[in-house]
Amino acid sequence: MQIDIPESWHAHLNGEFEKPYFQKLVRFVDDERQQYEVFPPEADVFSALRHTPYDDVNVFLLGQDPYHDNNQAHGLCFSVRPGIKPPPSLVNMFKELHDDVGCRIPNNGYLVPWADQGMLMLNAVLTVRAHQANSHKNHGWEKFTDHVIKVVNAKESPVIFVLWGGYAQKKKALIDTSRHTIVEAAHPSPLSARNGFFGSRPFSKINAALRAAGKPEIDWQLPNL
């Protein structure tokens, strides 16, 4: 597995890559790739860190598991490649985005413009076997991404952590709420969106917290591609 991350993350993460658990994880993912199709492609596994360098992280959206159907996952939680139909959770995010801040619903689910504005969009698990949800959980990714949460939490500058659903909300213990803001709601999945995601207005809450911290707000309007 290639570890391709920008310089700004190296000082904070380099030690993790040498640890036995991470070496074991690398062997596991490499073995999986030899036997099965694994998403996202190797070059995209760390793309969340590449699009949002450490110093630029103002918002941290935590996902759970990469999309496991063809051509969807590209290393940013909830995002799909251009030309791929947005999955149901993302459709619900766009509905709430429209209701919350009036954004036009785009013709694609490619969320890179948000990442490029300082929103780290990281799944807790960074790889998955094709068509088998959660097939790479409990192999070490969670330990690595918990460490990413901890190093972002260590930033002096306030960060808004966005935690949708019970899985993400378990990470609250890693966040110092005296310095950082948590925006939480139900998960946008069709199973739970009507139980507290719709109407939660997360996008305006994020921008209000950025404004209060004296940081640039995110332009949520995604371009049509």
TrEMBL record:
<keyword id="KW-0234">DNA repair</keyword>
<dbReference type="Pfam" id="PF03167">
    <property type="entry name" value="UDG"/>
</dbReference>
<dbReference type="InterPro" id="IPR005122">
    <property type="entry name" value="Uracil-DNA_glycosylase-like"/>
</dbReference>
<feature type="active site" description="Proton acceptor">
    <location>
        <position position="65"/>
    </location>
</feature>
<feature type="domain" description="Uracil-DNA glycosylase-like">
    <location>
        <begin position="50"/>
        <end position="210"/>
    </location>
</feature>
<keyword id="KW-0963">Cytoplasm</keyword>
<protein>
    <recommendedName>
        <fullName>Uracil-DNA glycosylase</fullName>
        <ecNumber>3.2.2.27</ecNumber>
    </recommendedName>
</protein>
<dbReference type="InterPro" id="IPR002043">
    <property type="entry name" value="UDG_fam1"/>
</dbReference>
<keyword id="KW-0227">DNA damage</keyword>
<comment type="function">
    <text>Excises uracil residues from the DNA which can arise as a result of misincorporation of dUMP residues by DNA polymerase or due to deamination of cytosine.</text>
</comment>
<keyword id="KW-0378">Hydrolase</keyword>
<comment type="similarity">
    <text>Belongs to the uracil-DNA glycosylase (UDG) superfamily. UNG family.</text>
</comment>
<dbReference type="InterPro" id="IPR036895">
    <property type="entry name" value="Uracil-DNA_glycosylase-like_sf"/>
</dbReference>
